[in-house]
Inverse folding.
């Protein structure tokens, strides 16, 4: 049998050399100075597509692809759908996890100093200061709107406390043409793109200037003008939608990508898996940005999955992936900037797992002290605060001082309080807006519902809010 196999391989190899004008080594096939074989153009250097490979190339691979492991059975390879697979005589199971966790990319240490040898994208003074200004603005906005909800002035709110670097630094690395499909903890991306404090207030109070016409819960922002899809409450539905948006950009040959944000809890939804597989197969230029903040409301990651976080899941679907420190503004900026370039120029999806911590409660409907220790929250709020760390770096460059800090915080607070007063006094949308903007011609069943609602209001006017015009 061994002699027969040797003879067969020699004949196939000779045929390959003659068909291509002489022998070529494996290093020549993969040489960067010449065109890479079709199956190797995406970097999967030991996988060959099922269709389109010549018998000669397969013969080369049989002899040079596989290192000699001392078992003759391992030298046999067969093209299965998806690539060439080697046979071995020993049964092996992949381990449930790696011995060591995937490393986490970081630029700034906890004291705001750059780590020796760290590689990152340089930012100008102007860009660095805008990033810091918006991080502080987002923090103040969250604090005041949260207090407004506690006062009963708005019905609901949700903060981004502890995740300001993720919001602002990722937005800074994108362009205005990139499409954003958020979850609900990315208002900073809108802030960076020019959404005003008045526009935020209008949405939270649901007045007639709210782009959603009062039909969404507070913090469900959206802006066509800023390429920011309206927030949708169901978890992870935006992921496959982002892939479709990215694929349309690719078809139109746009110099842009799509980015979608989601939390660690969203990776337990089916749409996460469908979205990643969809993106990998279509090679869509989309960035999947996961905020792994340790908690899906009250469910810790230890009770949600056994894998090494989220980064390994991207690799399982054939997506280039990285893990970064989400509380490090420079690391976030560098990673998203690089991911965007790869997504567009190479036509591929990218997964980023940002390790962070949700300092605030999940929302105004939650009390996180019921399921996590208060000292843990306080540690992340103080020792690991992304704004404080970034400020130390900015101030260390001589770009910021205490007087500017005080002026900024007072200015933002006054602007926001003024925006809330204006939004609160603004009339609500008319009742008829409940039935518009879905159909070109309103169907009869909706007309009937509208008439029924008006009849009910006429019969019980005292039960209807007086500030909502009929």
């Amino acid at each position: 049998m061994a002699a027969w196999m040797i003879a067969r391989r020699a004949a196939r190899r000779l045929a390959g050399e003659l068909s291509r004008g002489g022998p070529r080594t494996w290093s020549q096939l993969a040489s960067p100075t010449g065109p890479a074989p079709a199956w190797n153009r995406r970097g999967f250097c030991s996988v060959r597509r099922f269709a389109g490979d010549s018998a000669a190339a397969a013969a080369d691979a049989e002899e040079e692809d596989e290192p000699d492991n001392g078992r003759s059975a391992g030298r046999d390879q067969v093209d299965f759908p998806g690539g060439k697979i080697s046979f071995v005589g020993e049964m092996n199971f992949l381990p449930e996890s790696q011995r060591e966790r995937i490393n986490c990319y970081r630029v700034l240490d906890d004291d705001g100093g750059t780590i020796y040898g760290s590689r990152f994208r340089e930012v100008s003074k102007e860009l660095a200061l805008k990033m810091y200004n918006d991080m502080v603005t987002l923090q103040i906005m969250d604090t005041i709107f949260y207090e407004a909800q506690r006062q009963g002035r708005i019905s609901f709110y949700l903060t981004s406390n502890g995740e300001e670097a993720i919001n602002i630094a990722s937005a800074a690395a994108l362009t205005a043409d990139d499409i954003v499909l958020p979850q609900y903890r990315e208002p900073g991306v809108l802030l960076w793109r020019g959404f005003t404090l008045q526009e935020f207030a209008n949405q939270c109070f649901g007045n007639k200037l709210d782009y959603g016409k009062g039909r969404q819960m507070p913090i469900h922002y959206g802006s066509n003008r800023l390429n920011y899809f309206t927030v949708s409450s169901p978890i992870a539905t935006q992921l496959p939608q982002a892939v479709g948006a990215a694929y349309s950009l690719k078809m139109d040959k746009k110099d842009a990508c799509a980015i979608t944000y989601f939390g660690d809890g969203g990776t337990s939804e089916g749409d996460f898996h469908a979205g990643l597989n969809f993106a990998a197969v279509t090679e869509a230029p989309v960035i999947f940005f996961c905020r792994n903040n340790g908690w899906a409301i009250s469910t810790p990651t230890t009770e949600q999955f056994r894998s090494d976080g989220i980064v390994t899941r991207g690799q399982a679907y054939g997506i280039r992936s990285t893990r970064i420190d989400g509380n490090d503004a420079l690391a976030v900026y560098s990673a998203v900037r690089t991911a965007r370039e790869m997504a567009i120029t190479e036509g591929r999806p990218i997964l980023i797992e940002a390790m962070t911590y949700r300092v605030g409660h999940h929302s105004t409907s939650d009390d996180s002290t019921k399921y996590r220790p208060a000292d843990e929250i306080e540690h992340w709020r103080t020792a690991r605060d992304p704004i404080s760390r970034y400020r130390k770096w900015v101030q260390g460059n001589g770009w910021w001082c205490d007087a500017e800090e005080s002026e900024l915080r007072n200015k933002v607070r006054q602007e926001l309080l003024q925006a809330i007063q204006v939004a609160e006094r603004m009339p609500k949308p008319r009742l008829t807006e409940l039935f518009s903007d879905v159909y070109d011609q309103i169907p009869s069943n909706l007309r009937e519902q509208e008439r029924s609602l008006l009849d009910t209001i006429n019969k019980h006017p005292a039960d209807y809010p007086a500030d909502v015009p009929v």
Summary: The chain has three domains: 2-86, 125-425, 435-463.
